Amino acid sequence: GVVLMLVAATVLPVAVEQVRQVPEGVSPVVGPSVALFTLAAAVVLSVRGPLSWRPWSPLISIAAGCVLTALLGAYEVQRVIDAPWFGVPEPRFPGFDLTPGVEFWALLPTFAILTLVLGIKVISDTMVVQQASFREPRAIDFRHVQGGINANSIGMVLAGVTGTPPTQSYSSFSVSLINITGVASARVGYAVAAIFVLLALFSKLAAALLTVPDAVTGAYLVMVLGLFFVGGMQTVLKDGLDAQKTLVVALSFAIGLGVHGHDVVADVFGETLGALLGNGVMIGTLVAIGMTAFLEWTNPRPRRLETDLDIAALPSVDEFLSEVASEMQWSEASTERLRSAGEETLETLTLSEDGEPTGSPSRLSVTARPVGGAVDLEFLASIEQENLQDRLAYLTDDLRIPEANEISLRLLRHYASAVQHQKYHGIDIVTVRVEESR
User: Fold this and answer.
1) pLDDT tens across 84-142, in order?
2) For every residue of the chain, which 3-state class applies, written as one string?
């Protein structure tokens, strides 16, 4: 979330500066006027326009801004006229050099940090895209996040081999496009990719895109970056903010935004490394990672239990949780609450959605982390079930006899103050927070 907000906050001044860019000899009033008109058209079409027009609102607003620019005599149309209709890009291959020299070792730390930041950025993008893709809130499916990281990694490797800019830099704007158009279907994404490949052969269209006035693109970026900032806020606030998270978010965002574009970091680390770390997104991400790692390292040491994922493991899990409560000097009521939450979680994991035993052999790792006046229980296993967060969200409060597969879920919702289920390929992580009874 911090990364997303910093990307929006650091790029926004560039977008605003674009609004002022007009051809030589054109009145400076033209840029802001065109930008305001483009922004108004996009807002009206997105909020009050016909539903069938909504997916086309970005294109229509950009076209409207271009038309107004042409009427004001500030549109450079000659480049479009001179461009041929059809052309094939010239194939060029930069070649390989597998003998790293001094430059390679000098840039290696920079690229290592950059890779870490871009990896976190694509995780953030994928999570926000999932949140924006469904009408009803759902838990994040981290299997899709893994797929996004893999696809992005392949794309960046191919970009490095062919010597082209990586596509990952532009993935963040998918979130804003989904919010504006309301279109999130994967099939549409495949169709758009195929269309882009075909359109790359039409030089006239490429020239038209390159001649879109700066004021028009600046206005569009202002709206997109605003939506992007909100997406970052939603990510930060999704699981709530305690005092520690608030401090991490506040400091990382403030430091990242504060040093961006200034020479404070370069004065400390020198020109080469300082140029990279002086980027607000980079330094903000490193501060967030460092503070989070420090908080994790200084937390009380967790206790861990390894056993089989089977209802027969209930006595060992119950004894383990009793010891944890005893070490924290919890009352009998709090201890029973913790044990009951552990029991219902184990039953939920070992039973299928129709209430029958899964029968699939798997190992279970239970970790107990004291967090102030609460305990975070982390269950690691591989289960073939729907996300528990979604199943809990689907439960209704109607007065009726619950079905067999709902009993453990309802009891778990009663004993636990929060339940989070992260599904990965080959592993599931269920985190259950149990607070001390007052």
Assistant:
1) 888 777 777 777 777 877 777 767 766 777 677 778 778 877 887 787 777 777 778 88
2) CHHHHHHHHHHHHHHHHHHCCCCCCCCCCHHHHHHHHHHHHHHHHHHCCCHHHHHHHHHHHHHHHHHHHHHCCCCCCHHHHHCCCCCCCCCCCCCCCCCCCHHHHHHHHHHHHHHHHHHHHHHHHHHHHHHHCCCCCCCCCHHHHHHHHHHHHHHHHHHHHHCCCCHHHHCCHHHHHHHHHCCCCHHHHHHHHHHHHHHCCCHHHHHHHHCCCHHHHHHHHHHHHHHHHHHHHHHHHCCCCCHHHHHHHHHHHHHHHHHCCCCHHHHHHCHHHHHHHCCHHHHHHHHHHHHHHHHHHHCCCCEEEEEECCHHHHHHHHHHHHHHHHHCCCCHHHHHHHHHHHHHHHHHHHECCCCCECCCCCEEEEEEEEECCEEEEEEEECCCCCCHHHHHHHCCCCCCCCCCCCHHHHHHHHHCCEEEEEEECCEEEEEEEEECCC
pLDDT of residue 400: 47
Our CA angle for 364, 370, 375, nearest 5°, is: 65
Tell me how far apart the alpha carbons of residues 346 and 366 are, in angstroms, rounded to a whole number.
10
Between helices 2-19 and 214-237, what is the axis angle to 10°? Answer: 160
Per residue in 247-273, pLDDT tens?
A: 999 999 898 888 877 777 666 766 666
Contact 415/337 with Cβ under 8 angstroms?
yes
List the structure tokens of 75: 């549109």
Shortest CA distance to 382 belongs to which of 349, 357, 418? 349
Weakest-pLDDT range from 41-55, 89-103, 280-294, 394-408: 394-408
Q: In whole angstroms, what is the distance from residue 203 CA to residue 201 CA?
A: 6
Residues in the chain: 438
Which range, 78-92, 98-112, 225-239, 366-380, has the best average confidence (pLDDT)?
366-380
pLDDT of residue 319: 92
Question: Stretch 281-300: mean pLDDT, rounded?
Answer: 84
